[in-house]
Amino acid sequence: MPKGHTQQRNKAFKGESKRRAKQKSEGKLKKKIKKQEIKKGMGKDNQQEIQIEKKEKNQEQKVKVVKGVNTKIIAMFPMNQQANIAGVKFRLMQHLNIQSIPISSYSTQECFLNVDANGKLIKQPLRFIFLDRNPEQILDACKVADIICPVLSCRDCNTNTISLDPHNNANAFDEQGYKLLSNLRSQGLVQQVCYIQDLDEISMNKRNIVKKLFTRYFESEFPGAHIVDDFSTFMRSVVVLHEQAIEWRDVRGYMLPDDLCYINGELSITGTWRGQKGLSADQLVHITGVDDFSIARIELLGMIEQVYESTCPESLDPICRDKQHDIGDCDDLLKDIAGMQLQEEEEQMIEQESDVSYEDLDKEFEDEAQKKREQYEIQHRDAEDLDYEDEVEYGVEVKLRERYDKYQGLKNIRTSEFDPLTFLPDEAEKIYNFRFLKKIKQDVLQEMKEKEQIQPGQRIKITLRNVPELIVQRLTQPNKIYVISGLLKHERKMTQMHVRFHRHQMHNNVLKSKHQVFVQIGFRRAHINPIYSRILNNCNKTKYVKEIKDDQFYLASFYFYNSFPQQPVIFWQNDFDFRNSEIMGVGDIQRCDTFQVILKRIVLTGYPVKINKRKAVIRMMFFNPDDIKFFKPIELSTKLGLRGNILEPLGTHGLMKCMFNNFVKPNDVVSLQLYKRVHPKFVNIQI
């Protein structure tokens, strides 16, 4: 070591040979190289080639509709009686320097106004729909509209006293306007541009106050909407707003007709197919408010003309029937006729019972029972006086074993098992059962994507076969809005539909089961006869209710064509005059299950007349011993929470000896609960 150096430096370790190190490293994974390191070593040409390949793959997998190609649809409608839609159209045509257009096709009617793109402000074709106060037409137009424009007129605004009482003197939304607003919210709202009409007729010193007041009305009912009072601002707002996707309509595809032509039973409809999904000639289409139709052929219009013929049979079965039902794997369920078995201790108590002469007791009540026979035939208690919600009243001479023969007892409606394959109606053979509806929808959309022939945004001509002439006369009526939508696979098959809904806040009347109502499910509308049932938590069964008096969620069950979830459902009262019909309830599709168990409950009540600790003599539940013997296996319950069983009948006037699990109190009410499976009424669907 050099002189003066204080540290010792040893020879560095070089390890084993390279060959030995290579043998040890065999089988190990190489270190992953990050994408950033790869890009650093790649040239610009290679990176551009990779990006081009990615774009080509995306174009093959997903169809990209270029913005600004499709016509933007704007629906304008009044929200109060003073709003003048004809005046709005006239002022708009003056602003756009458009002269009167002669009626030559469906799209040139008075209710339409087509504006071409000019390359400056209007870079996309616009199509305005001007509607009167017809709720049916407004709902149909808003189904296909990209922008809705509610119009409020301030002509009848009382400017002298508006500062004292703005709500009563503004005369903004009227009763029909609020009803329409409820329907639109239930159906689903798109982008909104609100227009204040007749503001120039208000004096200058009150104009700003009126404008602020009507702006407040619009902001409360349409949050986030553009509020304008002149057509320059209106046109800028319409052009700037983008289309808002609505899943339930875009997943099927839809079209607003441009022209109609009827020749030899075939109806040809020309228009631009809209939405996110394409169309195939093998699909069915639905005309809202009319019916479902099969496609004969589809002609692609434009630069490249092409015709797609349908491969489906010409006949369209009104009710699809298939013997193969999706029953699924069902466990072997047993009927649960509940009955509490008496223990040895209870039997001993019966033997050690103090001597009581029930024969004397029977004679004592014989005369009283004879009097009650006449009273029960005359008297009828109101629903408020009943001890239970489902309590039933019956005459003395009624044989309950025959009247309630189809009923059975359940220990607990939530936990007791009930075989879903029993007590099925005769219509079960004619309808389909969709057990896994969401999974079926995914498969249908994937299959539809592979078979679609028409892409969204293409201008087409659809020819429908077997269209009656009477329907064509309805379609060709002036100023009528009709919407054509595509049907997914299985949406023509009849099934039992269950909708989770609640009573609307504007409807205060009672909803009764089995009464005919008017329903809208997505693009479809029809008259149905639903039954209502209460949804039970953590239970696959529901409890039938005769009437709905509150705003809680219930289940409406009825027979209808299958519809996949994510579609809004609206119920109206059964009124053929749509202008005066009132919204009853709103909800969404829960499932389409033929084997849904809906149980109807009835309660027979009796009262203790002789009590001995846990035993009691009950009267007024039955009036003959044969009925007591028939319902003996079913468990009893009381209003104070006791459980018991029928031991034996006493005498011939309906007295019976019962045993309970605790001491019986004189003010208690004894009940016997019976259940029966019910189904909705099968009726022909009226669209």
TrEMBL record:
Belongs to the TRAFAC class translation factor GTPase superfamily. Bms1-like GTPase family. TSR1 subfamily. It comes from Paramecium sonneborni. Coiled coil: none annotated. GO terms for cellular component: nucleus; preribosome, small subunit precursor. It comes from the Eukaryota. One of its GO terms (molecular function) is U3 snoRNA binding. Pfam families: AARP2CN, RIBIOP_C, Tsr1_G-like. This is Ribosome biogenesis protein BMS1/TSR1 C-terminal domain-containing protein. Residues 230-305 form the AARP2CN domain. Residues 13-28, 35-48 have a biased composition (Basic and acidic residues). Residues 391-678 form the Ribosome biogenesis protein BMS1/TSR1 C-terminal domain. Residues 1-12 have a biased composition (Basic residues). The lineage of its organism: Eukaryota, Sar, Alveolata, Ciliophora, Intramacronucleata. GO terms for biological process: endonucleolytic cleavage of tricistronic rRNA transcript (SSU-rRNA, 5.8S rRNA, LSU-rRNA); maturation of SSU-rRNA from tricistronic rRNA transcript (SSU-rRNA, 5.8S rRNA, LSU-rRNA). Residues 1-48 are annotated as: Disordered. InterPro entries: AARP2CN, Bms1/Tsr1, BMS1_TSR1_C.
